[in-house]
Amino acid sequence: MRLNLKQLEAFVWVADMQSFRRAAERLNTTQPNISARIAGLEGALNTQLMTRDAGSVRLTRKGQELLSHARRVLDATEALVVAADQKGLLSGTLRLGVTEMIVHTWLRDYLRALKDDYPNLVVELTVDLSVNLEKGLAERTLDLALQNGPFSRMSSGEITLGSYDMVWVAAPEIAPGGIATAEDLAQHPILTHARNTRLFDEVSAHFAMRRDLDVRLVPSSNLAACLHMTLDGMGIATLPRAMVSGELARGALCEIQYDWSPAPLDFYARYDAERAAHSVVTCAEAAVRVAQQYDHKNLLYVSN
After folding, report:
1. How many angstroms separate the CA atoms of 187 and 236, rounded?
2. Global confidence as pTM
3. What is the pLDDT of residue 303?
């Protein structure tokens, strides 16, 4: 019997996910197909690679020994295709996680860049809070996350994308004139990001120091909804400047001159450098390129 790349791919993903079912989901196939590929690989190599016990999967000693070799074969195959300038031969799915900040700035340009680089790569997109994207990376349900810190988990692959400053904004009809005070802001609901996010914690801590003020914080897990509420005059918000640049330019929102704002959002492209395919690394590097181009065109990117 001869081994093939699909068998090696199944072996690597079953080992990483510790589940035949999850590996099948990751490779967009069925669990019986994964089982057949593993059985075929074990037959070709004349060795047992893993055991299944009460739903769990454990590599045998030989399986542990051969896993790194299987990764290298897959990586070398991908490198061969890239060296031959035949990226169209690379297919599969990139499970990409992004925060809303990316959606409202340069995500469209980034997806176009990925399409140009890897025309047959399918991008499965998840838009979520950074804390949830971090969990997806750890559980291997995401290949690449474009997200803001801080992080509770270390990542072996991390590339800086840049820093985005925050700005206080309001609809013209409720925006305080001149230099605003905390009392001015407290006259309206303060629209913020979701609870358990860094932005909410910073805004909450800032106004907590003013015990004499009755500040109404209105958190939202959706920044777009927060922006729309601000446009409709339902409160005052602090949002990434890059996200509201168009509204500020056309006068739909006014920038509020207040002497404090949350710290800038630092963004990173994060992935598992030890297990990620080479294409994941190049997709992370493409994010850097697109972010820099966005900065150059819009003059909205604040460098470190």
Report:
1. 9
2. 0.80
3. 38
